[in-house]
Amino acid sequence: MIYFDSTATSKPIPEIIELYEKTINSCWFNPSSNYTLGLRSNSLFEQAKQSVCKTLKLTNHEILFPSSATMANNIAIFGICNNYRGTKKRIITTFIEHPSVYNVYKSLEKDFDVIYLKTDNDGIIDLNQLKESLNKETILVSVMWVNNIIGSVQPIGEIIEILKQYPRCKLHVDAVQAVGKIDLFNVDLNKIDLITISSHKLGGLKGTAVLAYNNKIDLASHFIGASQQKGLVPGTMDLAGAVCCAKIIDISVTNQKENDIYVSKLKNHLIDRIEELNNVQLNSNLSNKNTALYSNYIVSLFIKGKRAETVMHYLEKKDIYVSIGSACSSKQQTIDRTILSISNDKDRGISSIRVSLSVNNTIEEVDYLVDTLKEYLGGVKNVW
Q1: Is 169 a catalytic site residue?
Q2: Residues in CB range of 270: below 8 A, 6 or more apart
């Protein structure tokens, strides 16, 4: 099997599986219980929170461990907006957000003045539009750091500077495809009010994510239940999941630079070989392939005249696995929203596949992918 879909999920690394088994066997007690075993479990849960803060250099954030990044994004957005229901305050996001952000904003249109930022052809938001959209009534801006479809990297540092003029406005960053994939510390993460992270995208386990939020923010609970995790994620905590989530974040951030060097070689080799293919084009600017505009882990390809789903299933028969968009929405989505946003081309939207690279891939696997596409498409020279 050749797996090129690590943006959707990744295989748990052995160290995390071993840690989960060790934790669940030695400390399976309810962290909310008041007897010694429960208190010991709660102490371990608090250590996991402290580990995340240490890894991300956070000094003013509270840590929650929801069951997914989707839940974390929901808690973040509703946590801010539920305090302002009926006020028609302004909230701002982008057209190319993950469904767990974009669809939440769509659901809030009746109660809030919702602005969707446009992007250029490279999938980078228009900072001038952001400046023009901000006003004293703006309470929240949500921007995905690294897009999950084309890998465009948003200028979070510049966004932070712009928002300084609006202290009432909170910045929410979906960092699911950023943690462990790009250098996070080009900016001070303490200046981001709400940060979302997913464990299973990093070689961790499904079922645990992180929402880090500024401890001065009063988030309104979106759920009714008990008081665990500030009442924002009520219910018995998954202690082993939290411990493993904190560990995989630490491993990923620690190894980010080394891994990025390796994966960048895979990406550049793939891009160079794509030029051999007939009617295949990158959904990004070729001249920017070595710049910080894009993650090295995501390559989006437009295959002219072919439906993406057909290409995906052909590759599957060859034991190669790619995707046709976000795994959270691909079964419902016929035209990819991100591709449509950057190109305004419906044909491109239904004819694009995503190749997700990882440290587990090899040059030989990249070559096999390209050679298989060449066999499928016919021809060896790009007609564009």
Answers
A1: no
A2: 299, 355, 357, 366, 369, 370
